[in-house]
Amino acid sequence: NVTNNLFNASWTGAPGGALTAYAYLLETDNVDDSENDTFGLRYAGAFDLDALKLLVTLEGAQQEVEAGDTEYYFAELGAEVAGVTVKVAQEVLGSDDGTVAFQTPLATKHAFNGWADQFLATPAEGLEDTFVSVGGKAAGFKLLAVFHDYKSNEGSIDYGTETNLLVARPIGKNYVVGLKYADYSADDFKTDTSKYWAWGELKF
Q: Given its phi and psi angles, is residue 66 left (phi above 0), alpha (psi -120 to 50 degrees) or beta?
């Protein structure tokens, strides 16, 4: 059994967007040293300029476990113009001297650190994920391309790179079909991996 206490408070009056503070206090019952406490602050905003919309996201967090304390940082800058959104970002899941790394046990890292699923658990040396994404719509299709460059937070390890591609299209009001592709090119972490998905979705 687990005992989880999750706290989240948002201020929507922040300039351009919202400021959110959170605390995730996780513990496995009857297991010694199982506490995982995370405290963080996140800002997400959008600013309408003459020719484009400027997108800004900033986040920082501190995680405390028995084996050590680690930090998390996320910074993203984007622009939306003529229906195309371009973003440049870096996500840092820190390491405490290579012994323990920042973990996200409640998150689906598939959606954040590459669709090839090479980083579902953060390596002990931590993870620095620098990525660029380009997305938009054309002829009724949703299109998205993301390029990741992965490095360690400790020890200067070059993990590898990854390319993610997605195309999806709604059919009427109730159906969506899509294709998704992930290609991980390993340097000093795991092995080369490619994955493909094809799906159909029915909405009620």
A: alpha
- 4 vs 68, 71, 124, 127, CA distance in Å? 20, 20, 24, 25
Q: Are 78 and 88 in contact (CB under 8 A)?
A: yes
- Rounded-to-10 torsion of CA 11, 50, 135, 204: 60
CB 80 within 8 A of CB 87: no
Q: What is the pLDDT of residues 169-201, one digit of tens each?
A: 999 999 999 999 999 999 999 999 999 999 999
Over residues 101-158, the pLDDT tens digits come to 999 999 888 999 999 999 999 999 999 999 999 999 999 999 999 999 999 999 999 9
Tell me the pTM: 0.94
